[in-house]
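# nightly structure sweep
# worker-07 picked up a monomer target from the shared queue
# config: single-sequence mode, recycle default, output format = structure tokens
# input follows
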Amino acid sequence: MASFALTIKNRVPAKQKTAVSQSDLQTWGLHGIKLRSYQLDGVQWLSQCLQNQEGCILGDEMGLGKTCQTISLLVYMQGAGVKGPFLVLSPLSVLENWRKELESFAPSITVLCYKGDKEKREELKMDTEHTPFTVLLTTYEICLKDFSFLKSWKWKVLVVDEAHRLKNQDSLLHKTLSEFSVGFRVLLTGTPIQNNLREVYSLVSFIQPSLFPPDQAKDFVQHFADLQNRPALVAELQSVLEPFLLRRVKAEVAADLPRKTELLLYHGMSALQKKYYKAILTKDLDAFGNEQGSKTRLMNILVQLRKCVDHPYLFDGVEPEPFMMGEHLVKASGKLCLLDSLLAFLHKGGHRVLLFSQMTRMLDIVQDYMEYRGYSYERLDGSVRGEERNLAIKNFSTRDVFVFLLSTKAGGVGLNLTAADTVVFMDSDFNPQNDLQAAARCHRIGQTRPVKVIRLLGRDSVEEMVYSRAASKLDLTNTVIQEGRFSLLDQAQTAASSTGLQLSEILQFGVDKLLASEESSIRDVDLGNILGHGKNRPDHMYYYEGRDYSKEPSAEDQKSFQRLQEEQRAELTEDTGEGPSLRYKAGVCLAGPLGVSRQKRKPLTAAQLELRHQKNQESAAKRAKLHQDRSRKLEEQKQKKKEACLASEGSSESDPTAIHYVLGDVTHPQAGQADAIIVHCVDDSGRWGRGGLFTALEMRSDEPSKQYQQAGSMKDLDLGNVLLFPIDDKLSRSEGQDQLALIVAQLRDPSNHLSGIHLSALEGGLKKIYSVARRSKASVHLPRIGHSTPGFNWYGTERLIRKYLSSRGVPTFIYYHKRTTNMTSTAPPAVPPAAQPSTSTPPPSPCVPTPASPGGSAGPARGWDIQAPGCGTRSPAVLPSFMKGAFVLFYNLPATEKKRLARYLITYDGDEEDIMSPTVTHIVAEVTHAFHSQELQDLLRRYPQAVVTQTAWLDACYSRQMRVDPTPFLVPFR
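# output follows
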């Protein structure tokens, strides 16, 4: 094949110098920003590429201002008479930032933010027919959904932010965008080279398909395969990429940027973590015997060990139910103990923190911890929707919020969070580029304070190995980018095995020291000495200096692991029934059966076999009786402890918007004289179940099975549907009506396999139930949905219940069925059992510590307490409705403050509005900047029916239990 360099030289003209100055850009419409010299150079380079190329890659390091350089290019084109249309694609998390910067820096450019649900997007499509725009701004996902509409336009420029999404030329996004009619393509990415030459070719083939046809990717890779041995090829590859790729790093062009310091903080593990760490390692012994055939099983073990190092409560069934706040949340995990000390130190010093984790369930636990300690926070992950994302980012940037909780995937790209000066990684990504992207959220242009990037690592655990492999990979990738040594790309991609270590060996790292003792290895940390740059740095910390601190399992680790295997096999071999017993550890869910290889033994005589059989039977009988006695005692102790704890938490003063937890039978709701709605989740099969709640409901009424089966025969059991009907035909209360709401939240396939509960379906069902409950003033009663279901997201479920029911003023009760001490099932009683409600904000008690949550904020999704029997029957209070007719839009309020005010607004029969409309009667706002005043005045001109008040107006209404005149509380405009 002909030389790529020669082809480029012949077909890509040399760039003509263009004189683009700051004053020129200002003349053409750039306002509110003064470009740095390197940014101006970047705009000139982009304008040069525009003359003779189909596209280019702006690959500046994260935080150097790729967005403003791109906006300047669009302004340059507008000044040259090109009015658009321009298409900009970005992740959802940064869509709002693009809109704001376009409107701020280029007000003459008309922006259409194309997002929302299908109906909203249809409205926007119709608007484009008579409302001109210059830039259409949308996300990758919407682009794929509405590709036929977007494909119909002839775009002058296509901008793809975070363009490493296009590194696979076989991906749907790559193929879809390649079909668009585009004059010029601009790819923005802080990590233009991550893994291999094929990814490099995917990017350049997208921007310059005439020179890099997709079908020549294999030829390209083969042509440059021998870079390491042929220096001439290195120079050729650099010359091939040079016209299309511009890459600058902070060290070269932003020397005035405050220093970034990276630290590793090591922590020990609690006794509970060690117990589960050992259980995970010894559960699937055969996986370690066949590396190639068991790679998936070994990777699963690695993931489970990482979860264990984060927090043992990530495993289902480990945290005791009912979920209660307390120091146990911190003490159960060495990582959370270290985080507790770290955040206390940072809070005292006035620092602000971005906290990243790979696992959203770990963020759930940290969020509970934040509520327990009373720290202010915002959160952004994949479950947080568009408007809530924007509000979270805005609140953190403009308010004194201490911590921003982010998932590395959803919050690690594109955001500008320079209000923070500290980044904390709870765990490390396998791809170090993702962590770099995340750290760049605050270490970027606009940062005025030194930045610390702190990574928490479990001492003598697989976390050390994961980080070490990632550091090796990052070091090699940097060498590739900076020195053009592309032959190292494949080494970088497989850096985790660059030392020849097998995955099974990596899992053994640190076993000797970690499991030498079953006691907790958590130690106090002198953070003042570490973060304050003290002279005597302890051995649980080091500053990262760019070197590869590779680690390997020691000989002692391997011996200790072999000893663990032998002990486990010996324990399994003792059970000589029909085969080795499978002793699965509670709460640990790993893939693959546990098989144990058995050693051949000398054959036994008939007499010996008979004697052994007799002894085995006796031993089995003893073990069975011992196990039964132990189980009964444990269950009795657990039940007594639960009842004692619950009994101590009765409260005469309760939060009317809290969830009530009840020990009793949900089919006989404790609703006093009010109407009640019982909620149950079903699948879409139309076949009524047996046992448990299904049988209990049949004892109560004939309607449930009848209505459900009839809906099934009519094909009316789609996900999210709700069947609502009365169930007072067999048993009824003297006052109040009971209804049953069946939410279709599960799918059952033709093979009778049942799916888990779909939270989206549950959410839709709860919305419908709220509407009915609000109209009829009924209380809602639910069982502990998903109880004992492996992998079930109870946190998300309780968050939905709180969001759509209790926080909106609907009395909500969650029932825990009281088990008998002999653990035998009993039929539901013919009369309601005694079960008394109590709220989830009890007074201090020995069982549940009082949270230090300011501002009356509701606790997180873990229940704060549970109702106890024998506390006296109380009916749900009839709440006043003095806020009826008040439709309130909250503007620029912190999340915790908005949550508090909205909760009571809905409780007292008011309504919260998400968007401005003619129905809004009040805008409750905090004005912290001049542009807030301007925006609010613009809203009042468009919607004169509304008044703008301070938060003190709502507080006055709540405290006086009446809707007061808002005039004294109006926001003054200058």
